[in-house]
From TrEMBL:
Official protein name in the record: YdcF family protein
CDD domains given in the database record: YdcF-like
Record's keyword annotation contains Transmembrane helix: yes
Annotated organism of origin: Falsiroseomonas selenitidurans
Domain DUF218, first and last residues per copy: 83-248
Length: 265
């Protein structure tokens, strides 16, 4: 069942992701109009309408802000921290393998904040959870890249815990709980992108964790001036990522992977 859910979710999102779907609709509509089919105007308008809306309106920011604001960042960490859990999604395994040095993407703050917290809390374990999210599971894991990065930054191997089998956020939560068996009274911090935090907190709670949200990698703010800072391609990616989170929240709630549709502090 878990394998089927993973495969269906990957294939469905590959086709239905907004930027791809809008392009397919626009091309199909254009072909239909060119061939004299008047109803082709509807898919053409829908496809171009998505790009036009993201270009002219603060669609990306308005989709992202509720996600990023849901779990405020703590003003300071607890005095004692048992462990810091960093979710995968910030490393590029294939590029790391090709070039031989750790390659990070736009969510790199997950990794840098994890190291910063580990340095501030020498008593805490630094836990990285992430295998590979690709359908082809034969490639290198995110955990292997994380181990390379953390070692190059001087963190002792004995402080690291690596979970390298998970393929999605649900498995991140379940597999790390199984690996670490957290006890009552322990303090764990969860580090992931702010827009990803509501879904992450929902599945970690459902898996049995009592954990503190530590969001990073903010992409927008309350000041409207920030809504237009990013170039159009970046806003397209931001809007698509936010919609992916809203869809993920809904699917995880409907399938029982989280106890609330929009988890709150």
């Amino acid at each position: 069942m878990t394998d089927a859910f993973f495969l269906v979710s990957k294939l469905a999102w590959g086709v239905l992701r907004p930027n791809t779907l809008a392009l397919l609709l626009a091309v199909a509509g254009l072909v239909l109009v060119w061939r004299g089919r008047r109803f082709g105007r509807w898919p053409l308008a829908l496809g171009l309408g998505w790009y036009g809306a993201v270009f002219a309106l603060p669609v990306a920011a308005l989709l992202t802000l509720p996600l990023e604001n849901r779990f405020p960042r703590p003003t300071q960490a607890p005095a004692q921290v048992t462990g810091i859990i960093v979710l995968g999604g910030a490393v590029e395994q294939r590029l790391t393998e090709a070039r031989g040095i750790p390659a990070l993407n736009g969510a790199a703050e997950r990794m840098t904040e994890g190291v910063a917290l580990a340095l501030r809390h020498p008593e805490a374990k630094l836990v990285f959870t992430g295998g590979t999210a690709a359908i082809d599971q034969s490639g290198p894991t995110e955990a292997a890249t994380a181990a390379m990065l953390f070692a190059s930054l001087g963190l002792p191997e004995g402080r690291l815990v690596l979970e390298d089998a998970s393929r999605n956020t649900h498995e991140n939560a379940v597999f790390t709980h199984r690996l670490l068996a957290p006890k009552p009274g322990e303090t764990w911090l969860l580090v992931t992108s702010a827009s990803h935090m509501p879904r992450s907190m929902g599945v970690f709670r459902a898996a049995g964790w009592r954990i503190t949200a530590w969001p990073v990698n903010y992409t927008t703010g309350a000041d409207p001036a920030l809504w237009w800072d990013n170039p159009f391609p970046s806003r397209l990616n931001q809007a698509e990522w936010a919609l992916r989170e809203w869809v993920g929240l809904t699917v995880y709630w409907l399938t029982g992977r989280t106890g609330a549709w929009f988890p709150a502090p």
